[in-house]
Amino acid sequence: MSAIYAAVRKLPNSKKKRVLVTGGAGFVGSHLVDRLMLMGHEVIVVDNLFTGSKRNIQHWLGHPHFELSRHDVVDPYMAEVDMIYHLACPASPPHYQYNPVKTVKTSVMGSINMLGLAKRVKARFLLTSTSEVYGDPLEHPQAESYWGHVNPIGPRACYDEGKRVAETLSYSYQKQSNVQVRVARIFNTFGPRMNENDGRVVSNFILQALRGQSITVFGDGSQTRSFQYVHDLVDGLIALMEGDFSDPVNLGNPEEYTIQNFAEIVRDIVGRDGVSIINLNATQDDPHQRKPDITRARKEIGWEPRFSMKQGIEETVSG
Ligand SMILES: NC(=O)c1ccc[n+]([C@@H]2O[C@H](COP(=O)([O-])OP(=O)(O)OC[C@H]3O[C@@H](n4cnc5c(N)ncnc54)[C@H](O)[C@@H]3O)[C@@H](O)[C@H]2O)c1
Questions:
Q1: Confidence (pLDDT) at 146
Q2: Which residues does the UniProt record annotate as the domain NAD(P)-binding (predicted)?
Q3: Which of 48, 86, 89, 95 is the best mutation target for the ligand 1 pocket, counting ligand atoms within 8 Å of the beta carbon and taking the most?
Q4: Ligand 1 surroundings by CB, under 6 angstroms
Q5: What spacing in Å lies between the alpha carbon of 284 and ligand 1's midpoint?
Q6: Are 173 and 166 in contact (CB under 8 A)?
Q7: What pLDDT does residue 1 have?
Q8: Hey, what CATH topology would domain 2-193+229-254+292-306 get?
Q9: Where are the domains of the chain?
Q10: pLDDT tens across 166-208, in order?
Q11: 175 to each of 9, 83, 169, 178, 257, how far by Cα in Å?
């Protein structure tokens, strides 16, 4: 505890920002909070703890720069802040499909509330959107100019369409009310503090392999994904927030793997004997290909991933 407190930079008041992180008790949010705290900023986390946990941020509870507010973003929130990182939203299919109406409300009303706050206090606003806005893409790799191929009434729609509306809201507030907005389209991300039972492929495979169970691949495993390590994502979110570029930016690792190949890599890194890979029926609306084109991120915010997927998996497994 004291070691991490000692690592917090002392910023002069002129450089210290008041930063609101919605969803800051979740997987990505808690890593972002760590970084912002270490940079010396003042951080308020707003989270209803639906999929997040106090455990993820407990090392900051009691720090004078840190505040946790248990609050649902569907209801308005007021605070004097300079920046808002708006992450609050369940992100894995079992969680966002558990109550699809609530997921849409979280995306739409939560974004309206946070954009309204940004407008009122003149804060810069960053939305964590998703590669899911591309749906099952007909273009590969996906650049930000691609409009997407989303089923508006499928089981994933509450999340995908919710985020698409959140993007629309962001740019509407920018046009109408001059709110400074940033939109990150995040591709699959993994790392320590991933929710163990969130049903996402990385946590599933690692847990199954660590428990010595068979790794279950849905479909024939030929569908592709790219996997980014959470520390790279945090670098990208901060670069985007602090930069001048306000169109959507993909943040992901363009190294592409088939799910079958990924399962083999996880099995080999975990190194437990007797772990086999079995194929089950494909899930509905599961995209066939996903790979970010990060040309824009490289050019506009000077960002690219530093960790390979294998390095990230090794750290996650050992962490
Ligand atoms: N992890 C990924 O691979 C990934 C990919 C694309 C986009 N994203 C986006 O990044 C953000 C964070 O994702 P994550 O992986 O950390 O998910 P997560 O589920 O771990 O974190 C989401 C956080 O939001 C909170 N939350 C949910 N609904 C809320 C509400 N109504 N009010 C207040 N808080 C609420 C949860 O309690 C949790 O702490 C999400 O917006 C997600 O859509 C993540």
A1: 97
A2: 20-316
A3: 89
A4: 22-23, 25-29, 47-52, 72-74, 87-91, 106, 110, 128, 130, 186, 188-189, 195
A5: 22
A6: no
A7: 60
A8: Rossmann fold (3.40.50)
A9: 2-193+229-254+292-306
A10: 999 999 999 999 999 999 999 999 999 988 777 788 888 998 9
A11: 36, 18, 10, 6, 39
